[in-house]
Amino acid sequence: MTTRARQPYNHSNSAKSFLQRQYELAEKQGHLINHVELFRKTHARGGQFVSQVAMDAHHQMLKLQSQPIPEGSQPLTRDEIC
After folding, report:
1. Average pLDDT over residues 62-75
2. Which among 25, 37, 22, 16 is positioned nearest to 82, based on CA atoms?
3. Domain map of the chain by residue range?
4. Whole-angstrom distance, CA of residue 61 vs CA of residue 81
5. pTM of the predicted model as reported, rounded to 2 decimal places
């Protein structure tokens, strides 16, 4: 099985690295782009997610990001959300 076939969803980033795309988006928008926003920007074309799996993953990230932090706990890290 190829590496591409093992990916749960494709991205719309062409050959650019995610770091390069994040930098370009930050320059264009004038502010830093978080990883959840970067996921949305790199897994959608024309405002539509490239697949249902990518859309579901993004919705799960938003859900995790918006959960309240119980008293005495640490917020989820970027890696735990994405």
Report:
1. 90
2. 37
3. 34-68+78-82
4. 5
5. 0.70
Query: Do 12 and 50 contact (CB within 8 A), yes or no?
Result: yes
Q: Which residue has the tokens 């959608």?
A: 44
pLDDT in tens, 2-39: 555 555 555 556 667 878 888 898 999 999 989 999 99
Q: Is there a contact between 21 and 38 (Cβ–Cβ < 8 Å)?
A: yes
Angle at 77 between CA 41 and CA 42, to 5 degrees: 10
φ, ψ of residue 48 to 5 degrees: the values are -115, 135
Amino acid occupying residue 23 = Y
* Contact in structure between 33 and 41 (CB atoms under 8 Å): yes
Amino acid in the structure at residue 74: Q
